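Journal club prep, shared notes

We agreed each person brings one worked example of a sequence with its structure written out as tokens. Mine is MipA/OmpV family protein. I'm keeping it raw so we can talk through how to read the token line rather than staring at a rendered picture. Sequence first:
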Amino acid sequence: MRYLFAIALLACSSLAAPASAQWINNISEASFDVGAGVTYGPGYFGDDDAELGPWGTMRNLTLGTDTGEEKQGFALIPSFGYIGSRKATDHEELRGLDDIDWTGEIGLRVNYVSGPSLSYAAMRLGVGGHDGLVGEIGTKYRFIVNDKLTLWTTAELQLGDDEFTDTYFGVSEDESASSSFRAYDPSGGIYAANIALEARYSLTPKTSILGKITYGRLLNDAGNSPIVQERNQPEINLGIARRLNFRF
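Then the structure, token by token:
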């Protein structure tokens, strides 16, 4: 599975790099939203209870040109991710399972922009709680309601290699002996599907309210894990974001 992810990234990069290289000299601006707020959703992958927690985000990266327009076509950009820790002492049903530290993820993402539509594929390497490869493929569509309100709809598949799925959905023989779960060794692949509606309401030209409602569902070996209490994984995020601009 790790090799398949690497091959996929190389294939995406080979498509995006020539187009990006031809266009890079015309880039005059890069901007993105950085925000903080609260999230209400599962405490861990497969949790059947929701809890309130902090939410941080960096999203909606836009690469502009000297015409002031968003780049159309392919672009290769950084991709970052974060997964919070999982502690058995915080969840009675996980008693006997090993704790998992928080994880930072870093990698690359390929975007293809065509008008208001954005298709993307990303791959990241985890550092911390897991050291596997994860990624997603998806598509977004932008609706500009008025000069203050913008909406995005998203459909996405999430992928993880064997290392990732074993960390969050597997049960070792030792864990099985000390818990109520049977031993389980999941394989990597598509582990979840998400659909989402996101909104950004501008308070000022650079400051906005961000909101996002996501319906996720665990699939395949991940969804069949004995750890999973509920396959459906809804989440609500709300926060304040600041638009940062960098001119070249």
